[in-house]
Design a protein that fits this description.
- It is a single chain.
- By secondary structure, the chain is mostly helical.
- It has one domain.
- It has 18 helices and no strands.
- Helix 5 crosses helix 18, helix 12 runs antiparallel to helix 13 and helix 16 packs across helix 18.
- The termini are far apart.
């Protein structure tokens, strides 16, 4: 047995376990600004630079190859798409328009800073689009689908975290200006607006605390899990997941490459996502073990990304991050214009925006700051964005590639 490989696997599993345990036990406010995800990525990178983890290991490539289609299947197939589409109602076109604004903003942001970036930077922006349309899992999928080099992946994660530090507070504070914005946009009132007055966040610490309290008092819809033993649930989950991955890999190997748009890896991501969507219409979506295992594997995958990342491209960080902020500003401006044209309430547009650039972990916080009745809708929007992410991010990445002339 290769002792070094066993040690590497131990570290990659122990790192996410340590940081989530630390967040759970300490409850420090630091985690709001420097979330576990950032540490889970950065720690293996620092351990490798410090010589504790090896520069090269078969574990890095093996986990990147095999874990990605597994956690995509696990996470997507547990989403109740019928419920998502049926419950969203008016929010469905809003979240789709918000996603489109993110896609359109990508090539514009890149174009502004392209003179200071290398030719392969378009793959980093494609990976960032994955996070901004769905979440971390989509970003990881784009690394493989677009062939993002490790240095560009590191820049994408860095930009994602820095932009989010501004984005989340901005959307929370926007609740204060819902009245004037809605009058300007001639927005149609939300169904529950007449029954209750939307909550206004306080300034400073109370704002975050109030949002967290509202999130806790308005739980997401309960999920009807499979009525089987955990062991049987786990066995079914493993069998179905591996069957989907194996079938999609077999089909992807037989489909022609369409360079530069679609390669074998792109086919695999698209097919696995589509297969998982189809599985979500079966009883397997009620698997509790699939839901839990998918999230756990995702964070192990993030740790592996950090361990195999390169620091060579960090000299490009200022330009890359500046382009991400231009991208965000462009997308936000397009969302404001769309809200006026669609006569959309600011609260609904803010929730759709955070469902894309933020995901399920942050959407309820912004929703609660605007109106607690939006919390379930925010969760459903985030789930829909996760499904759209692998499709929309590939489109955004190739729009950036066209602008880059690559």
């Amino acid at each position: 047995m290769d002792q070094q490989s066993v040690f590497v696997m131990f570290v990659l599993v122990a790192v996410p376990a340590f940081y989530f345990l630390a967040e759970h036990r300490t409850g420090w406010r630091m985690w709001s600004f420097l979330p576990p995800l950032l540490w889970i990525y950065a720690s293996p990178l620092l351990l490798r630079v410090g010589g504790i983890l090896p520069e090269q290991s078969p574990v890095y490539g093996g986990l990147r190859t095999y874990l990605l289609p597994v956690f995509i299947t696990l996470l997507v197939m547990t989403i109740d798409l019928r419920s998502v589409v049926g419950t969203l109602g008016r929010g469905l076109p809003v979240v789709l328009v918000s996603t489109l604004c993110v896609i359109v903003g990508a090539p514009i942001g890149y174009l502004i800073v392209s003179p200071w970036l290398p030719a392969e930077a378009w793959t980093g922006y494609g990976a960032l689009a994955g996070s901004w349309i769905g979440g971390t899992a989509n970003m990881a999928a784009m690394e493989r689908a677009l062939g993002t080099p490790p240095d560009q992946m590191g820049l994408a994660i860095l930009a994602d975290q820095l932009v989010f530090l501004l984005w989340l507070p901005l959307l929370i504070v926007s609740a204060r200006y819902a009245g004037p914005f809605n009058r300007w946009a001639k927005a149609k009132p939300l169904p529950f607006a007449a029954a209750e007055v939307p909550a206004e966040p306080a300034v400073g610490e109370d704002s975050d605390q109030d949002a967290e309290a509202k999130e806790e008092t308005t739980p997401p819809p309960a999920k009807d899990y499979l009525k089987v033993s955990p062991m049987l649930d786990l066995l079914l989950m493993v069998a179905v997941t591996l069957a989907n991955v194996a079938l999609c890999a077999w089909i992807a190997a037989r489909l022609p490459d369409l360079p530069p748009f679609i390669t074998g890896s792109t086919w695999l991501v698209l097919l696995v996502t589509t297969g998982a969507v189809l599985l979500s219409f079966t009883p397997i979506r009620r698997s509790h073990q699939a839901e839990v295992a998918g999230i756990a594997i995702l964070y192990i995958f993030v740790a592996n990304m950090g361990a195999s990342a390169s620091v060579a491209g960090f000299a490009q960080a200022p330009a890359f991050v500046a382009g991400a902020f231009v991208w965000l500003a462009t997308s936000a401006s397009l969302m404001v214009i769309a809200a006026r044209l669609m006569r959309t309430d600011l609260s609904l547009m803010a929730v759709a925006a955070i469902a894309n650039i933020g995901g399920a972990a942050s959407a309820p916080v912004v929703a609660a700051a605007h109106h607690r009745a939006l919390v379930p809708v925010a969760i459903l929007m985030a789930m829909l964005c996760y499904v759209l992410g692998n499709y929309g991010a590939i489109l955004a990445g190739h729009l950036v590639r066209i602008v880059a002339g690559a």
